[in-house]
């Protein structure tokens, strides 16, 4: 006799890495930069955020890194309420992110190697354990022979590649990248896109802010667009 049929179990809901609900934000000198933004980034998703210069892409990333607080609405990160996180609790959220800032934010008193290794050191990983991984990542972004240099000796594109290596080194759950290919040539932009795609395939949630709509479309990621402070899903193909 066959066993009794069980009703199919409900599929487990996809955990959300990011949820914004009705988020608004403005600077004192520039109110209304972001208006009524609602956005869910499911765990393991890959999105490009596009929009004209000044449309608020970096500002939206600053809200997600908890560098700014929304003036309206709510933010949840990794399933936890994060709208008004006190300063002492922000590092706990930030350790789960790899952030690539438009201005790179490298530490000039540390070598290229030590900049790339920083997120692992902060997690208490011993140099003997992370050394080969850091060397491999630096080689991947074309900085294998620059490990002993200081960031001040790097070109703009090299600094950008180091900032990317540092952000992805600790395999964060969420990568937030602000114009990560803005200073590199097209071949390197494609290589870096492959790096983000590969991390995404391994489960990392990725959000890239970029002017480069062509790169965004080639990426296979979902496209979001900011226009006049409002967010919309961009069409999958360029308008004819
Ligand atoms: N710290 C600040 N104080 C006041 N206004 C600001 C500040 N930072 C940004 N803004 C303004 O907010 C708006 C959005 O800026 P933001 O940098 O988020 O745009 P963006 O889409 O990232 O632009 P870009 O593509 O040029 O980097 C702009 O009008 C900008 O001038």
Automatic annotation (TrEMBL):
<dbReference type="GO" id="GO:0016887">
    <property type="term" value="F:ATP hydrolysis activity"/>
</dbReference>
<keyword id="KW-0131">Cell cycle</keyword>
<protein>
    <submittedName>
        <fullName>Cell division ATP-binding protein FtsE</fullName>
    </submittedName>
</protein>
<dbReference type="Pfam" id="PF00005">
    <property type="entry name" value="ABC_tran"/>
</dbReference>
<dbReference type="InterPro" id="IPR003439">
    <property type="entry name" value="ABC_transporter-like_ATP-bd"/>
</dbReference>
<dbReference type="GO" id="GO:0005886">
    <property type="term" value="C:plasma membrane"/>
</dbReference>
<feature type="domain" description="ABC transporter">
    <location>
        <begin position="18"/>
        <end position="240"/>
    </location>
</feature>
<keyword id="KW-0132">Cell division</keyword>
<keyword id="KW-0547">Nucleotide-binding</keyword>
<dbReference type="InterPro" id="IPR017871">
    <property type="entry name" value="ABC_transporter-like_CS"/>
</dbReference>
<dbReference type="GO" id="GO:0022857">
    <property type="term" value="F:transmembrane transporter activity"/>
</dbReference>
<dbReference type="InterPro" id="IPR015854">
    <property type="entry name" value="ABC_transpr_LolD-like"/>
</dbReference>
<dbReference type="InterPro" id="IPR027417">
    <property type="entry name" value="P-loop_NTPase"/>
</dbReference>
<dbReference type="GO" id="GO:0005524">
    <property type="term" value="F:ATP binding"/>
</dbReference>
<dbReference type="GO" id="GO:0051301">
    <property type="term" value="P:cell division"/>
</dbReference>
<keyword id="KW-0067">ATP-binding</keyword>
<dbReference type="InterPro" id="IPR003593">
    <property type="entry name" value="AAA+_ATPase"/>
</dbReference>
């Amino acid at each position: 006799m066959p066993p009794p049929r069980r009703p199919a179990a409900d599929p487990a809901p996809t955990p959300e890495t990011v949820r914004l609900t009705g988020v608004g934000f403005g600077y004192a000198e520039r109110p209304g930069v972001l208006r009524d933004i609602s956005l869910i980034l499911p765990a393991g998703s890959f999105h490009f955020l596009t929009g004209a210069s000044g449309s608020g892409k970096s500002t939206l990333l600053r809200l997600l890194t908890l560098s700014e607080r929304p003036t309206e609405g709510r933010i949840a990160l990794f399933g936890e309420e994060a709208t008004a996180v006190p300063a002492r609790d922000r590092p706990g959220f930030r350790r789960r992110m790899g952030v690539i800032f438009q201005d790179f934010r490298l530490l000039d008193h540390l070598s290229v190697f030590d900049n790339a290794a920083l997120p692992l050191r902060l997690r208490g990983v011993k140099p003997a354990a992370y050394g080969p991984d850091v060397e491999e990542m630096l080689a991947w972004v074309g900085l294998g022979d620059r490990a002993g240099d200081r960031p001040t000796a790097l070109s703009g594109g090299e600094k950008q590649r180091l900032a990317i290596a540092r952000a992805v080194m600790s395999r964060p759950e969420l990568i937030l990248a602000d114009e990560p290919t803005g200073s590199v040539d097209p071949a390197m932009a494609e290589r870096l896109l492959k790096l983000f795609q590969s991390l995404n395939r391994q489960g990392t949630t990725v959000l890239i802010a970029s002017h480069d709509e062509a790169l965004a479309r080639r990426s296979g990621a979902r496209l979001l667009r900011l226009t006049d402070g409002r967010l919309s899903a961009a069409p999958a193909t360029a308008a004819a």
